[in-house]
Design goal:
The complex is a heterotrimer.
Chain A lengths: L5 E10 L2 E11 L4 E5 L6 H8 L7 E6 L2 E2 L5 H6 L2 E4 L11 H7 L7 H14 L15 H13 L5 E5 L7 H16 L3 E6 L2 H7 L2 E6 L2 E6 L6 H9 L16 E10 L9 E9 L3 E5 L6 H9 L9 E3 L2 E2 L5 H7 L1 E4 L14 H9 L6 E2 L2 E2 L1 H14 L16 H13 L5 E5 L7 H16 L3 E6 L2 H7 L2 E6 L2 E2 L3 E2 L5 H7 L6 H7 L1
Parallel strand pairs in A: 3-8, 3-9, 6-7, 7-8, 13-20, 13-21, 16-19, 19-20
Antiparallel strand pairs in A: 1-2, 1-4, 4-5, 9-10, 11-12, 11-14, 14-15, 17-18, 21-22, 21-23
Chain B lengths: L7 H27 L7 H19 L2 H25 L4 H20 L12 E3 L9 H5 L1 E3 H19 L1 H11 L1 H6 L4 H27 L11 H11 L4 H24 L5 H5 L1 H13 L17
Antiparallel strand pairs in B: 1-2
Helix pairs in contact in B: 1-6, 1-9, 1-10, 1-11, 2-3, 2-4, 2-9, 2-10, 3-4, 3-9, 6-7, 6-11, 10-11, 10-13, 11-13
Chain C lengths: L1 E5 L5 H25 L4 H9 L1 H4 L3 H28 L6 H19 L5 H30 L3 H21 L35 H18 L2 H11 L1 H6 L4 H25 L13 H11 L4 H25 L3 H18 L1 H4 E5 L6
Antiparallel strand pairs in C: 1-2
Helix pairs in contact in C: 1-2, 1-14, 2-13, 4-8, 4-9, 4-11, 4-12, 4-13, 5-6, 5-7, 5-11, 5-12, 6-7, 6-11, 8-9, 8-11, 8-13, 12-13, 12-14, 13-14
The chains are: A alpha/beta, B mainly alpha, C mainly alpha.
């Protein structure tokens, strides 16, 4: 592998207030699996968007097969043999698989022929997919197959994958890696973006590590330890959260045959969920995206009403109560989506403090909002959770993801709830903020709060949970003690590889 | 009251005529909404089309040129809407309302010199052979060119949306503009095109009222037809076939109440006159079906 | 290349500046339109904006300002809550008519009994209720069946309009009117007359109601939890649900509030300045109020100023019609343009415009 497929030299891209990429250079050879490693905000996404023609770099040069390469738009990039599997934002829920694939191709054949080719390629690579299905009805793993097949149909020279495993079960990850290795053997180069070190060690030939927009190192991931890579990525040593296991208390939260249809189109209904959470206990609920996580949070926060007995707090039926009544009784929640659900983007931090804190912090008297009190509460959250912002009068969307996440989690924790439910508490958050959030959740449990952590990040769940349960297609498995569970066992609880194993056996 | 004065054949034939303005305007709006844009300015574009139609046809003495002028008028007005909502990122609901208020004023100003002028006649095209068919000939084949153009456009839009690549891209843009952008489709450009097609269609629909249905110019003569067109798009579930059905349903109610008025039904005229609007509400409540485009009405801004 | 770049915070300065800028641009473009119509532009603008307040006959026009502004402000204040919450009631014109019909209906039912302490307050209640009930139709349909409230409320304007015609010719027609359409004139029925409270000021009960509505709206928006919930529901529906705001209740309250205030405005108008139920009773206040609400930035104080400005264009427009033979539709165009330019300039509140390549920060 001496020839070079794609070479970047001195790529720089700045946005107001932040330099996303500063003088980034790297080279990818045909058939090479090249990892791009870095924390959130390190500039990985901007870099691949430049390669894919979505972003125009301010300076620097790219060469593809030795020719200068400056794609004006994704079409140009695709024409040159570069395709990309996105983390979000590139499928159309209401359209069929075949239509989705066609939209990602330059000159798609007629839909009938295309469907046949989708079937061929999906068999060939062990990624079964029915071209006539509506994408909105597919599971997260299946949706990713749509994107991958869309790329494969174009015989790419370079396949870019942005955090592809975040939506897969461990078994599905294995199958994906099989597919990628096959592609590699055929000479396709793969640029693989991730922050999961073990995956990169298992798959990649080379790794380029980015921090704050700059290349801080290259390495062969099979030869350095995960710890060394992590330290390069973070630029320091990691603080691993710890807690003292306290004695478990009385049952605070009971879910009793909780079933409910999804309020969202293409959502997952909850099916007969029963579980108990005790004071001082952290229940981790793992699962791949789109298996009922959002619905479970809505049913617990009170945004979705269910039959009264399905949700009980200290034995009291609360399934029918709206959010504020549940807060008054001691149940607080923090949804996954920071901007637009947990917080209103264009409102100030003070206003966002009142948003969910008004009940327990007594911020409304005779219908009038105590804005002074709300500001004090906001300031307390900012101080206690080290939220980096000029002050409580700044709007929520001006904060970085990690800081806003600390703010919304801190807002619920500081209300001293008896039961706290969080969904994806550290999603898209840099490592130090994630560690701080996990520590705060564990401290809260240590004080006797019953905590439910819904997360797709299995490492996170295993790190902080006392008991682990898996959410799969709206059903919750029986919880098992987290200590001692192997990743294979967890994977099987998550539903294994769904229908993929057979396909690969044939391939 | 003399119900025998109502000739069912004539009723069905005039139904096709009465529904044409709404059909044209609704068809344009359907394409706009499939591209993810909600333009509430249909009424304003229709009334401007009605005024432009009178002006151009009177000045040129040719009804077809009147229609062309009306399409141009509607298109220009929708261009303003496109600039505001797509480039200046204004709220689509508010901008649509502004367009309607603006269009009502503009048309009144443009049309004031033409009140009472009779536009040149718009000839009916008796289709050879077919127009001589018993019953059907009278109902469906003795109309003017715009009626057939409207029907042809329904078929063309259906074909475009479901059978062509460009139609697929337009639907994709309306379904999820972020995804379409990520795949490299020019969201704003496509929406500009859709909005202007909608404007031209609304202009044509308005001109059909002032050149054929009435035919003369009076202020505010579209009388809510643009809003009914918007309602029919919802009723149709954003599908061209159902749109035709909705327009005929509305045309039927309109023609029937006019006939009942003429027949001297013992109900005050005002109550009959309000029936199309009430019918629209009922239809919206009872029969509306279908899923709206995913990005409908949302502002698109390509950020990093 | 011109690019738009989202501001980290909405600009306060621009949110004040943009309405003023919009008015100025409208004056310039409006002047050009007037010039194109062969009217002297500067004189036309002066006739519309200056003469009613400070011209030769200002003494006659000034009271008209309050008379015309009161319904606009009353309706726009109600609408502003819904517009903030994403509830689009654009049928205020219909609710205004229904308020007038209900109010006048109550008065005419009592005619000729003289009991002002009973009849007038009852009319206010009935008028408010009339508008409120009319607005509840789109409200209930949206909550119950998911029907689009924009279209339903608008359709109901036409229905109310025909109902007004029917009433003027039928049920409410003056039995002593010698066959002319229209009801008895409430100005000649002391118990029902919404008269000028201080002579030659234009001040009637509707003006007072509008003033109270502005103050109450201000308090609701800035201090009360309802105002907070309204803003939340409009900006971020899912965050509102998380905060415990019921979307359905928000729809009903916003429609009820705006409908009630529009109905009240209609009642004050029919019992005072208009005097009788007549087909020509409504002159589009319900639609102009939409412009007023936006021009006032959906803020009570802004609406107060915008309402006065719009009232001025009505009066100035009439004056220009008389003195310069400026067509009435020119004023309508003028008002539409104002909203257009406002929406265009508004982009500056949330975005910065950058010329050329993006620089390194």
């Amino acid at each position: 592998m001496t020839e070079t497929l794609l070479a970047l030299a001195g790529l720089t891209k700045a946005y107001p207030g932040v330099i996303a990429n500063n003088d980034v250079s790297l080279e990818i050879a045909p058939g090479e699996v090249h990892a791009l490693l870095g924390e959130n905000g390190a500039g990985k996404s901007t870099l691949v968007k430049a390669i894919y023609g979505l972003v125009k770099p301010d300076s620097g040069a790219m060469h593809l097969d030795g020719q200068p390469f400056a794609p004006a738009d994704p079409k140009a990039a695709r024409a040159a043999g570069i395709t990309m599997v996105f983390q979000h934002f590139s499928l159309f829920d209401a359209l069929s698989v075949a239509e989705n694939v066609a939209l990602g191709m330059e000159r798609p054949p007629p839909l009938r022929d295309l469907s046949a080719r989708i079937r061929d390629v999906s068999d060939q690579y062990g990624l079964p997919l029915d071209p006539t299905r509506i994408v909105g009805d597919l599971s997260a793993g299946e949706r990713q197959r749509v994107e991958i097949i869309r790329c494969l149909l174009q015989d790419p020279k370079l396949l870019i994958m942005d955090e592809p495993t975040s939506v897969l079960t461990p078994q599905e990850v294995e199958i994906l890696f099989e597919t990628l290795r096959k592609l590699k053997a055929e000479g396709t180069a793969i640029l693989y973006i991730s922050h999961k070190l073990e995956e990169i060690r298992a798959l990649c030939d080379t790794a380029t590590i980015l921090r704050l927009g700059e290349v801080v190192g290259d390495c062969d991931p099979r030869e350095v330890s995960a710890r060394e890579m992590a330290e390069m990525m973070v630029g320091g040593t990691l603080h691993v959260p710890e807690r003292e296991a306290g004695p478990e208390g009385a049952v605070l939260l009971t879910l009793d045959h909780l079933s409910a249809p999804s309020p969202q189109e293409f959502g997952t209904p909850l099916r007969d969920i029963s579980v108990e959470v005790r004071a001082g206990q952290v229940l981790g609920i793992g699962g791949v995206a789109g298996n009922g996580q959002d619905e479970l949070l809505l049913a617990l926060s009170g945004e979705m009403a269910v039959a009264p007995d399905m949700v009980r707090l200290r034995g009291q039926a609360i399934g029918h109560l709206p959010p504020n009544a549940r807060r008054a009784l001691g149940l607080c929640a923090a949804p996954e989506e920071r901007l637009g659900h947990a917080a209103a983007p264009d409102m100030t931090l003070t206003e966002n403090a009142a948003l969910s804190g008004k009940t327990r912090k007594n911020l409304v008297r005779n219908g009038l909002v105590d804005w002074g009190g709300a500001r004090d509460f906001a300031t307390t959250i900012i101080d206690r959770f080290d939220v980096r912002t000029p002050g409580p009068e700044n709007v929520a969307r001006s904060l970085s993801g990690g800081n806003l996440q600390k703010y919304v989690i801190g807002r619920e924790i500081l209300q001293a709830p008896d039961v706290l439910v969080v969904n994806q508490p550290t999603w898209g958050v840099d490592a130090s903020a994630a560690a701080a959030i996990r520590q705060a959740i564990m401290d809260l449990a240590a004080e006797g709060t019953a905590v439910v952590v819904i997360s797709q990040d299995l490492d996170e769940v295993m790190e902080i949970a006392d008991a682990f349960a898996a959410l799969n297609a709206g059903r919750l498995s029986a919880p098992r003690p987290a200590r001692g569970l192997t990743i294979e066992e967890v994977g099987l609880m998550l539903g294994g590889a769904h229908d993929m194993e057979v396909a690969h056996a044939e391939a | 009251m003399d119900l025998t004065a109502i000739d069912p054949l004539l009723l069905l034939a005039s139904l096709m005529v009465a529904s044409t303005p709404i059909l044209l305007a609704a068809l344009g709006e359907l394409v706009v909404e499939r591209a993810g844009v909600l333009n509430l300015g249909v009424e304003g574009m229709m009334i401007t089309g009605a005024a432009c139609g009178i002006i151009f046809s009177t000045l040129t003495g040719n009804a077809w040129l009147g229609f062309a002028g009306a399409a141009l008028g509607g298109l220009l007005l929708s261009f303003l809407f496109a600039v505001l909502t797509q480039l200046l990122l204004s709220n689509q609901v508010a901008t649509g309302l502004a367009l309607t208020l603006f269009g009502l004023g503009l048309s009144a100003l443009l049309g004031q010199g033409f009140a009472g002028t009779r536009p040149p006649a718009f000839p009916k095209l008796d289709i050879p052979l077919l127009s001589n068919l018993p019953v059907m000939g009278q109902i469906a084949f003795r109309h003017d060119g715009m009626v057939y153009l409207g029907l042809g456009l329904v078929a063309a839009v259906w074909y475009f949306l479901t059978r062509t690549r460009a139609g697929l891209v337009l639907r994709a843009v309306g379904e999820n503009h972020d995804a379409a952008h990520a795949l490299g489709y020019p969201v704003v450009l496509i929406r500009f095109g859709a909005i202007m097609f909608g404007g031209a269609c609304a202009g044509l629909g308005g001109a059909y009222i002032s050149l054929v249905r009435v035919p003369q110019w009076t202020e505010g003569m579209t009388a809510g037809a643009g809003w009914i067109a918007l309602a029919i798009v919802v009723f149709a579930g954003w599908k061209p076939g159902r749109l035709l059905l909705g327009a005929y349903l509305f045309g039927g109610v309109t023609v029937l109440q006019l006939n009942l008025q003429a027949a001297g039904l013992a109900i005050p005229v005002e109550y009959l006159s309000m029936s199309p609007y009430v019918a629209t509400i009922i239809v919206l409540v009872v029969l509306a079906a279908g899923r709206k485009p995913g990005s409908l009405g949302q502002t698109f801004h390509a950020s990093r | 290349m011109i690019t738009l770049e989202r501001r980290p915070q909405p600009s306060r300065a621009w949110s004040y500046l943009s309405p003023i800028l919009a008015v100025l641009i409208t004056m310039v473009v409006g002047g050009l339109v007037f010039a194109a119509l062969g009217k002297p532009p500067v004189e036309a603008i002066r006739t519309i904006f200056w003469d009613p307040l400070f011209g030769d006959f200002a003494g006659y026009f000034r009271p008209q300002l309050l008379v015309k502004a009161a319904p606009l402000i009353l309706i726009a204040t109600g609408l502003s809550f819904g517009f903030r919450a994403g509830v689009w009631n654009i049928g205020a014109e219909g609710q205004y008519i229904m308020g007038a019909l209900f109010g006048a209906g109550v008065a005419l039912a009592f005619y000729p009994i003289e009991a002002r302490w009973l009849i007038f307050p009852l009319m206010v209640v009935a008028g408010t209720l009339g508008g409120l009930l009319w607005a509840m139709i789109p409200g209930v349909l949206r909550v119950r069946f998911g029907t689009n409230e924009i279209l339903v409320s608008l359709m109901l304007v036409y229905v109310a309009d025909f109902l007004l015609d029917a009433m003027a010719l039928g049920l409410l027609r003056n039995p002593e009117g010698m066959g002319f359409p229209g009801s008895r004139n409430l100005q000649q029925y002391p118990s029902a007359h919404n008269a000028e409270l201080i002579a030659n000021t234009g001040l009637h009960w509707g003006v007072i109601a509008a003033f109270f509505a502005v103050v109450a709206a201000y308090i609701l928006l800035s201090r009360h939890i309802f105002g907070f919930n309204v803003r939340l529901a409009g900006q971020s529906p899912r965050a509102a649900a998380f905060a415990g705001v019921s979307a359905n209740r928000m729809v009903l309250i916003c429609l009820g509030l705006s409908g009630g205030l529009a109905g009240m405005a209609g009642m004050f108008e029919v019992a005072g300045p208009a005097g009788q139920v007549l087909a020509s009773f409504n002159v589009g206040y319900g639609f102009t109020a939409i412009i007023v609400a936006f021009l006032g930035r959906l803020h009570p104080l802004g609406i107060l100023l915008a309402g006065m400005l719009m009232a001025l264009t009505y009066i100035g427009g009439e004056l220009a019609q008389m003195n310069l033979q400026l067509p009435r539709s020119a004023i309508q165009l003028f008002q539409g343009m104002l909203l257009f330019f406002l929406l265009a300039v508004d982009v500056m509140t949330n975005f910065r415009i950058r010329l050329g390549r993006k620089g390194v920060a």
